[in-house]
Every structure is written in C-alpha cells, then in structure tokens.
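In the lab's daily routine, each protein ends up as an entry in a very long ledger. A line of letters takes care of the sequence, but it says nothing directly about the fold. The fold becomes a row of whole numbers, each drawn from a learned catalogue of backbone shapes. The protein below has been through that process, and both of its lines are reproduced in full:
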Amino acid sequence: MKKVLAVSLVVVIMFAFSSLVLAEDTEAAPKSEESKQEAVVTILEIEPFNYCAIEMVGSYDQHSTGFATLYTEATKQNLPMSQVPFGIYWDNPAETPVDSLNWDIGFKVPEGTEVAEPLKLKPWKYSLMAKTVFQGNPEDEGLATAYKKLFAWVGANGYVIVGPVMERYVSIPKTTEQGDVLLSIELMVPIMKLEKK
C-alpha cells in the first residue's frame, strides 16, 4: 500500500518499545524475509477507544518524525505509554497526491485522558475489523502484497471496508546481518457485512 518505516523510524519504535510494558497480546517474532507467508485473515470485534495522536500530512517518509514527536510530547505530558503504537491512514495513496495524504501516529489512552497541543485526542469508533499480519521487511513488496490479499479477502467474503487502515506495530524491530529490518505489523481495516439481496 505504501513505502514505510525508514531505519530512523525503526530506531524510534525500538526506543518506544524498550520503555513500554506492553499491555496487549503481540504476535510472534518476525520471520526472515525468505519465509513465504500466506496472508491469513481473521475477523475480530474490538471495543471503541480513544487515542492520542500526532496528525500528519504528506509523505509517509515522515514516520520517524511523527513517532519522535508523539513520544516526546507524551513524555512531557506524563501520558501513560503502555500500549502498542499504530498508524491510521485516512487516504488511499493510489488516489491521493502525496502532499495531501492525511494520517495519524498514535497509541490508545485510558478513558478520561486529556492531552495538549500538538497532540490530539481522537476516538476510534469502529468495532468489526478484518486483520492480517505482515512479518518481514516493510520496505519490500511483501507489505503491498499482504494489503492486496487483505482487501481481496474482504470483498470475496461479502464485506466492504468502512473506515481507514490501521497498522499496529506489534514487535520490536529486528535487524538482520544484511541490514534488513524485520517487523510484525497487524494490518487492520474496519468492515461491514453486505446485506444479501
């Protein structure tokens, strides 16, 4: 779907994870690039929640800046940082000019949390989600392939996508001897079942 996560972003995420006690289940450690993965799609229901975010506009190459700002500001504001970080992507990069892409970098916060600028407090209102897990180097074509399979599965099983894509970064990044970065990323989209005519 997009080219994401330069090495500088990986450093930021590694710092964030090293200072967190993750309160949620995470997926298995990333597999090597050579491992062939079949995109297994599952449906899950989640409770709506609030999240604090840095609002981003433009190229996805700004991930490292977004994460650095998010965690710097969250630290200044003494916000609880015990949740898995994620990105929310409001636009389709195949249809939206790069300079106009809107996206958020954030993490879930408890009910009643207050934030100050430049952080924004936002609601996630969607419950029914389709999810697959990408494991590997997010710079290679495997990420785009995982997205294609997820979207194809949604349509083939009588659902439609009704909201933005969410990427949850559920593992500490690993770097191979060749310098490739490996991550586990949950790719999630809100869905709704089409009514049969």
Observations:
- Strands lie at 42-45, 49-57, 86-89, 102-109, 120-124, 128-136, 159-161, 165-169, 174-175, 181-193.
